[in-house]
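Consider a protein example.
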Amino acid sequence: MKSDTSSIPITTERLLIRKFTADDFSSYAAYRSRSDVYRYLYAAPPKGVELERKFLKVVEPTFEQNGDAYRLAVVRQSDKVLLGDVVLKLADKAALQAEVGYVFNPEYAGQGYASEAVEAVIDLGFRHFEFHRIFARLDTANTASVRVMERLGLRREAHLIENDRFNGVWVSEYIYAVLALEWARRIG
């Protein structure tokens, strides 16, 4: 697995996917402090100093050890608005596996930005970082994310029943995944 991040930024038809900068904090905080954004993240939205601490990790990521997360800003090219973020999390370096995730400002939902950004980051994971398998975990009630995974051709590998608990409520998860060879066939 390569850990070099020199292939960033990535451009797609409508998006610029790049490293976060200190100037992104107010836009990041605008959606990362919303409780509706955290509905499927099984955590309370960070506030104040905690939010600032989380943002500093985003601006200066490490991507070398299991658990490290490389979070990128997703910016609309036409007006430079920060729409959300995508992440590759190093799940198992020895097994060449990463987890993909994403969080978008709900104000920009339903326009295909998540699918476009996640596709680009999965492609980065396989082509540049040389992962063997990339997977996503999502709440079964998060139908928008289910559609993103299925639109991108990831396979539903597991349905975990009431495997997590948040605020006293049991939640279930799907695990979607794709192998590098499958992705290469899909992309061509």
Notes: Residues 10-187 form a domain with the Aminopeptidase fold (CATH 3.40.630.30). The chain has one domain: 10-187. The first strand starts at residue 10 and ends at 11.
